[in-house]
Amino acid sequence: MKKPAIKKLHRLLLFYLLLWIILFEFILPANNFLPKPSVVLLSFDALWRDYKFPVNFLATISSVYIALIAAYFIAQYLSPIIFRKNHFLSEFLFSLHWFSIYIPWIIFGIFLIYWFPISPIIEFIFLLITAFFSLIIKIKEEASNVQKEFIESAVSLGAGENIISRKIIWKSIQPKILKHTILLHFNLWTLAIVFEFIKNGYGLGGIFRMALDYKDLSALFAVSVITGLFVFLGNSAIKFYRNKFCHWSLN
Amino acid sequence: MKTGNLLEIKDVSKFFHGSAGAKYQVLEKINLSIEKPTTGGIFASIISPLDSGKSTLMKIISAIEKPSAGEVLIEGNIYNKPDGTVVYIPEKPSSFPWMNVKQNIEFAIEVSKNPNKKNNTKIDEIISAVGLTGYEDHFPHEKSFGFRFRISLARALAAGAKIILIDDPFKSLHRETKNEIIQLIKNLSTIYNQAILFSTSNINEAVLISDKIFLLSHRPGRIFKEIEIDCTKRDEQSEYIASVKNEIEKLFQNHDKIPSFA
Questions:
Q1: Do A152 and B59 touch (CB under 8 A)?
Q2: Which of A86, B112, B205, B239 could, after both became Cys, cross-link B84 (CB 3.0–4.6 A)?
Q3: Contact criterion met (CB < 8 Å) for A153 and B93
Q4: Residue B31 Cα distances to A26, B70, B71, B168, angstroms
Q5: Are B166 and B185 a contacting pair, CB within 8 Å?
Q6: Per-residue pLDDT at B170
Q7: Is the CB of B94 inside 8 Å of chain A's CB atoms?
Q8: How does pLDDT run across A125-155, given as a tens digit for each residue?
Q9: With bands split at pLDDT 50, 70 and 90, how would you rate the model's confidence at A168?
């Protein structure tokens, strides 16, 4: 996003914040639509103590980011196989993609909850598999669009298959993979929260479930704001990495 | 069988399979040879109408593609595995945008299996030879087509190429840059005693810079004439050049029944 667009977005967010404070703190009576800003501020304390926010937050954030980073590096490591046509592993992994087109991926998470005892490891595995498949499908798709002149010139210089995979094809698609990672990052947060919500255990999804059970609107609102803030920070970190280390443009 | 030729193409044919299973021929029994340059390098070109299989032929010579029949010999030895001896420079810029100038050249040295490849101590010399001194840390995507072409040339030199194949290099260049690049290629082939083979659809360009011209017919491509250019009479305005150009056009008209293609 260009800088003026970001400024515009920030101004818009500030406008909504002020609107919320003015309307819901001073003008409108207490209601079930949005909480009073002062009550939300007070609920942070309750979040910390009653909802065990630090532990739950740490559980979700660690699952999301460790899964995302691990999946990225595993996919990068396996990319030479993924690039190969007619390799059994590549074909097998890609065939599983078929299921994800027609069956919403969260259903796989529900099966995991059914099969295994509640444990942070299961959530991590669920997110890792999700991220890994999403990445390899994108890698395979982008690999077929690599500018053939890069490959041909590298081949004529004497480069072997492995070097071409790692230093040409991977590098060529890396900016697009990182762009995809931004979307994937958002999807992982969503899946993690839904998984935890269904599982009714620890994690931010667990807090949402508990807050719903207690009909605690201010806690729901506060956790939503914090989640949004961290998704925004995560997005910004990925974009920073992409701009810093994948500065070239292939378009 | 060892010969005195640097490059020899013997009866090379190429077929492609279409999507409906149809087989179509792109090249038919191509035979051509380029002798070893003694001093000063050699500059040859392949002229043909558009879409006549020039690029396919170049890829076969550089062993990127395999011929359906026939063989390519470099100094009498079959060349079917690319090792940096014959370097192909495609029509579109092919310098890697994720590597800076120096890294692009280092890559060529790293991957080349050619015994004549340069070592890392020669990088500065190569950068200077292609006119990129001071730009070592610059990235190609920030620069012009001419700049990126110089990087491709530098990589070919670093790999120790004996033959550099340049696919329709001047199509995207404006006149001034084109003249600069032509002069640069000529100087480099003289200094490094290399053979340069380039493909073009532009008769004028080929006649003005080549020592030897091969005429490739329309599909299926066949070399139907070889023309030696007398370099002593070469001058853009000269009658000799005009007569060679006319001769080539007539040959194509008679052979391919195409009124004009350039």
A1: yes
A2: B112
A3: no
A4: 90, 9, 10, 21
A5: yes
A6: 78
A7: yes
A8: 999 999 998 999 899 889 989 999 999 999 9
A9: very high
CA distance B238 to B231: 12
Long-range pairs of B63-66 with CB within 8 A, sequence gap ≥ 24: B63/A156, B64/A152, B64/A155, B64/A156, B64/B88, B65/B14
Confidence of residue A250 (pLDDT cuts 50, 70, 90): very low
Residue B259 to residues A207, A208, B45, B242, Cα–Cα distance (Å):
79, 77, 21, 18
Chain A residue nearest residue B105, CA to CA: A157
Residue B99 CA to residue A171 CA, distance in Å, equals 10
CA triplet A155, A156, A160: central angle to 5 degrees? 30
Q: Is the pLDDT of residue A38 over 90?
A: no
Q: What angle do CA A12, A15, A17 make, to 5 degrees?
A: 110
Average pLDDT over residues B157-165: 93
Structure tokens at B96: 């890697």
Cross-strand pairs, B7: B34, B74
E strand residue ranges, B130-194: 163-167
Rounded CA-CA distance B72/B9 in Å is 5
C-alpha distances in Å from residue B108, one per residue of B53, B145, B159: 27, 20, 5
C-beta atoms of B155 and A157 within 8 A: yes
pLDDT digits (tens, 9 = 90+) for A51-109: 999 999 999 999 999 999 999 999 999 998 888 877 777 777 777 777 777 888 888 88
Does the distance separating the beta carbons of A158 and B113 come in below 8 Å? yes
Start-to-end Cα distance in chain B: 38
DSSP class per residue in A50-81? TS-HHHHHHHHHHHHHHHHHHHHHHHHHHHHH
Count Cβ neighbours within 10 Å for each residue of B58-67 and write b for 16 or more, e otherwise: bbbbbbbbeb
- Chain A residues inside the 8 Å CB shell of B139: 247-248
CB contact under 8 A, A157 and B111: yes
Locate B15 and state its tokens. 């077929």
DSSP string, A74-113: HHHHHHHHHHSTT-HHHHHHHHHHHHHHHS-THHHHHHHH
Determine which of A146, A148, A153 to mutate to test the interface with B (most B C-beta atoms within 10 Å).
Answer: A153
Q: Is B172 on the interface with A (CB under 8 A)?
A: no
Say if residue B171's pLDDT is above 80.
no
* B196 touches B43 (CB < 8 A): yes
Spatial distance between the Cα atoms of A79 and A135, rounded to a whole number of angstroms: 10
Cβ contacts of A157 on chain B, cutoff 8 Å: 82, 84, 87, 107-108, 111-112, 155-156, 159
φ/ψ of residue B53, rounded to 5: 95, 15
Cα dist from A39 to A44, A47, A220, whole Å = 9, 12, 12
